[in-house]
């Protein structure tokens, strides 16, 4: 899937969970972890690692939580 499509989808999820207040970041992370195919998760994390152009702040925070721990 193209990075543009992944960004669009992630930002839609972020917009939904933004209305949840402080728990929104966790909601985005949980949704992506639970419902996105591993290839999609890898693709969006790769996009984030390359600068994350176009990602909303809530999505960036959520994806930072999904990065593999060293």
Structure description:
It holds the Pfam family FdsD. The chain is mainly α. It has one domain (3-66). The protein contains four helices and no strands. It has helices at 3-18, 24-35, 38-49, 57-66. The N and C termini lie far apart (26 Å). The mean pLDDT is 96.
Tell the overall outline. Answer: globular
Describe the main β-sheet briefly: none
Total number of beta strands: 0
Using only C-alpha atoms, the radius of gyration works out to 11 Å
Approximately how much beta-strand content do the residues carry? under 5%
Provide mean pLDDT, rounded: 96
Question: What order do the SSEs take from the amino end to the carboxyl end, as H and E?
Answer: HHHH
Domain module tally: 1
Q: Gap between N and C termini, in Å?
A: 26 Å
Q: What is the helix content?
A: over 70%
State the secondary-structure class. Answer: mainly alpha
What are the low-pLDDT stretches, counting only 5+ consecutive residues below 50? Answer: none
So how many helices? Answer: 4
Protein name: Formate dehydrogenase
Pfam family, one: FdsD
InterPro entries: Formate_DH_dsu (IPR021074)
Feature tags:
mainly alpha, 70 residues, Formate_DH_dsu, Formate dehydrogenase, 71% helix
Short description:
InterPro entries: Formate_DH_dsu. This protein is mainly α and 70 residues long.
What topology does this entry show?
Blueprint: H1 3-18, H2 24-35, H3 38-49, H4 57-66
